[in-house]
Write a structure and sequence with these properties.
The complex is a heterodimer of chains A (290) and B (386). Chain A has six helices and twelve strands. Chain A has 290 residues and is α/β, with parallel strands linked by helices. In chain A, strands 1-9-8-5-4-2-3 form a seven-stranded mixed β-sheet. In chain A, strands 7-6-10 form a three-stranded antiparallel β-sheet, with no helix packed on it. Chain A has a two-stranded antiparallel sheet with strand order 11-12. The longest helix of chain A is centred in the C-terminal third of the chain and has 19 residues. Chain A is globular. The N and C termini of chain A lie far apart (56 Å). The mean pLDDT of chain A is 94. In chain B, the strands form two sheets. Chain B has a four-stranded antiparallel β-sheet with strand order 1-2-3-6. Classes of the chains: A alpha/beta (290), B alpha+beta (386). The interface between A and B is large, with 71 and 58 residues.
């Protein structure tokens, strides 16, 4: 069986593109679209996938990551599907070389440029869902920029726990109006949405929504004057910033795991960032020795 | 030291798929592959369910989907849906009159006598659910003999192909609301997103391809008491519905094929008359044909269910939910089964199973983030306790 370029029929791709344009025109607004069934599970990145398939052309270079890694099972699966249905595209693991980066749960550590498109996969498109279950009511709250219940939730967290307990999917106000769910990126990644040079598109396939953070647009996490927003804390018990035990960097989001000896170790979550660091370190070493 | 957080993706996926395929063929030389006619006939109810939940009437591909998914209804429906995404929408059928259905079964639980008569057709409703142990070791000869025998004993008198609708009799008596003008354009859920409030045709389309178990669970909650529509099955019919399309040259309607369908109409208890304004409001929201009162006279209310294939429980559940949703749209929901958002956003099998499955994927980053929050909170807790 042969499939059209980009799998979806042309009408479907056109609909997604129109959704994208509308999303860019109204930063942070969730544009409803009909969302086709893709040949992989709803929840496995079908929203991001439809954005990528609608945007990609034969000469584009694509990078797909999941949990920061190009080699994660789901990233491999998505990449090979896109390669199969989009003949002529190139794929890469390098953040720098990619025209389109589709990602789940991470924004690459290396800042993106104006020429790059970041596509994020979204399970829950609406930041208000933690305080309001009904979509109809949430829509009205967004249109009135009524985020009072969300702020009360943050306040109550502080009263109960002394901390805001939202760990990822941190509510972020775009261009001074709509508050978005920036997808399950860690808080570490949120500041890198703010006035980024690149376009970020967010796609929720199951919930049938597209939204965007256009280039150079304000993206501000909700916070209070006296309780600022905080990213994940990677300091050890002595207050030293932990390093990646592979490339030794101390400025990236770290994955924590237990090695075979039973010790807790830390490594960069962004595999391309880690590899690039290692390569340049060995290049420097070689130059010094040579 | 290598990069250990995530590794071996491509090979692992490949190996897992090969193992899954091995399970399908595990009997080796002693086994034989299922052909699509076998699936369509011997697994008829499964096949019907997949046709309906896949939302694509393609009996052969439905058989294939069942075969490659090893009989998983959710997965098989999913494969059909994904195939559908690659196909353009070429045309739209005109409104179809289901009284033209070539029936294989039609019953009414509202009346003993109905015009045209009750026709049980193929059904195991009254069969004793005892295990038929003789089928454990069924010989091909005995198997073939069944159809042969049945066809030989076929009575000569021919029944008409189609029968009048039971509801027409009630309607003529004025006990039902007048039938509204059919809308020329139904809401196409494959081309437009659901934005609430939605019209009734969008709700019906969503339910028509909903997952049977999900629909049943919500309808059952209404039947048990989380709702009170008190339905009676006015008519349940199963049969082949001729599909017509305009001829590309002459524009005249031409029959292009037929689809096996199940249709159910339930009559629900009447309500006290409401004021005209409320009725008009509901009409706009819920589409045509829902007006409950002629003048100030109360009438019965209706619920409608229809889906591809032979799926009686699904059609009945859908009809009950249709009635419950109309009530919710008019008066505000007082139960989950009357809440359009609650019902329509939670009955799609492809959506719900996909999301349940996605929890199997790595969530290392978000869990790292969760641990950061918990550790910080615990540290603060300890500090304040000191």
């Amino acid at each position: 069986m042969s499939y059209p370029f980009g799998f979806m029929d042309e009408y479907a791709k056109k609909e997604v593109r129109r959704g994208i344009l509308k999303a860019i025109a109204i930063p942070g607004y969730q544009v409803p679209y009909s969302s086709r069934e893709m040949p992989m599970g709803r929840g496995f990145g079908t929203g991001g996938l439809q954005l990528t398939l609608a945007a990609i052309g034969p000469n584009d270079t694509l990078k797909v990551i999941d949990q920061g890694s190009d080699d994660s099972v789901n990233a491999v699966n998505l990449r090979s599907f896109i390669e199969m249905t989009c003949p002529g595209i190139d794929t890469t693991a390098s953040t720098e070389e990619a025209d389109i980066i589709q990602s789940r749960h991470r924004i690459p550590e290396k800042p993106l440029s104006e020429d790059q498109l970041l596509v994020l996969q979204v399970p829950y498109p609406d930041a208000l869902v933690v305080v309001e279950a009904s979509e109809e009511k949430r829509k009205q709250m967004h249109s009135e920029a009524d985020y009072s219940r969300l702020l009360v939730k943050l306040y109550e967290d502080i009263v109960k726990f002394g901390e805001i307990t939202l760990s990822h999917r941190y509510p972020t106000r775009i261009n001074g109006h709509y508050v978005i769910d920036p997808s399950p990126i860690p808080r570490w990644d949120v500041p890198r949405l703010h006035r980024a040079a690149n376009l970020t598109l967010l796609g929720a396939g199951r919930e049938k929504k597209i939204y965007a953070v256009p280039p150079y647009t304000a993206a501000e996490p909700l916070e209070f004057d006296d309780i600022p927003f905080r990213v994940e804390d990677f300091r050890d018990e002595h207050g030293h910033r932990r390093r990646c035990q592979r490339c030794s960097t101390d400025d990236s989001f770290l994955d924590e795991f237990i090695n075979e000896e039973g010790d807790t170790v830390y490594q960069c979550s962004d595999s391309d960032y880690c590899n690039t660091r290692l390569l340049s370190a060995s290049a420097i070493k070689e130059r010094c020795l040579g | 030291m290598g990069y250990v957080a995530i590794k071996g993706g491509a090979e692992a996926i490949q190996g897992a798929e090969e193992l899954f395929e091995y399970l399908r063929c595990a009997r080796g030389e002693a086994g034989s592959p299922l052909d699509s006619a076998t699936i369509q006939n011997q697994l008829r109810q499964l096949h019907s369910r997949v046709l309906s939940e896949g939302g694509l009437y393609h009996p052969e591909l439905a058989s294939l989907a069942i075969k490659q998914s090893l009989g998983d209804t959710l997965e098989a429906g999913f494969a059909l849906r994904a195939y559908r995404s690659t196909q353009p929408r070429l045309s739209e059928t005109p409104l179809i009159d289901t009284s033209k259905m070539r029936l294989i079964r039609r019953i009414s639980s509202a009346f003993k006598e109905i015009p045209g008569g009750q026709m049980l057709g193929p059904s195991n409703d009254y069969a004793l659910r005892l295990l038929r142990l003789e089928l454990l070791d069924e010989s091909p000869e005995a198997f073939r003999q069944v159809a042969h025998q049945w066809l030989q004993d076929l009575p000569q008198d021919r029944l008409p192909d189609s029968f009048p609708k039971v509801l027409d009799a009630l309607r003529n008596e004025g006990l039902l609301p007048k039938q509204g003008e059919g809308k020329a354009q139904a809401f196409d859920i494959t081309r437009e997103p659901l934005v609430f409030p939605v019209e009734r045709s969008a709700a019906l389309a969503t339910m028509a391809r909903a997952e049977t178990g999900s629909l049943l669970a919500l309808a059952y909650s209404n039947m048990r008491g989380y709702g009170d529509i008190h339905p009676t099955v006015a008519e349940l019919r199963v049969g082949y519905l001729p599909i017509e399309l305009p001829h590309p040259v002459t524009g005249e309607p031409v029959e292009v094929g037929e689809v096996l369908m199940t249709e159910c109409e339930v009559v629900a208890m009447y309500d006290k008359p409401t004021d005209d304004k409320a009725v008009m409001g509901s009409d706009i929201k819920a589409g045509t044909g829902t007006t409950q009162h002629i003048g100030s006279q109360p009438t019965f209310t209706l619920g409608y269910g229809a889906c591809f294939g032979h799926n009686e429980v699904k059609a009945i559940s859908m009809a009950i939910l249709d009635r419950a949703l109309q009530k919710g749209m008019q008066e505000g929901p007082s139960n989950p089964s009357e809440d359009p958002e609650f019902v329509l956003l939670h009955i799609d099998g492809i959506d719900s199973m996909g999301f349940a499955s996605h929890y199997k994927m790595p969530h290392y980053v978000t869990f790292q983030s969760d641990m950061d929050r918990l550790r910080t909170t615990r540290r603060k807790h300890k500090e304040t306790a000191l």
